[in-house]
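Reviewers of the previous submission asked for a worked example of the structure-prediction workflow described in the proposal, so we include one complete record here. The input consisted solely of the amino acid sequence. No template or homolog information was supplied to the procedure at any stage.
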Amino acid sequence: MLKRRGRHEGALCWAALTAGLLCFLFVYVIPLQIPPERFPYSGFALVLLTVASFSLALAGLIRNAPRRWLLRIALVLSLSLPIFWLMVVLWLLGVAFGTMQ
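From that input alone, the workflow returned the following structure tokens.
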């Protein structure tokens, strides 16, 4: 007999995608970045949003939710903060060793 999937798994997919999209926008879109002068805990909030989005996407992938492609996109978008810092570190290493300007 076929298993019927509930509405909660679809909501999980869309919540993960929304949180991942917010992570991406807060990291890469300059006008949406939260300045620490107005909100001193903005870095902590962004890390918390990243962890929550990653956890939602991973939970959906583990549960075999119906829209796996949405969860994969959400997973990549939620990792935008670590990807950004990896690019910054690689750029700084390139500048330090003289391979980049």
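The chain has four helices and no strands. We consider this example representative of the routine output the project will generate in years two and three.
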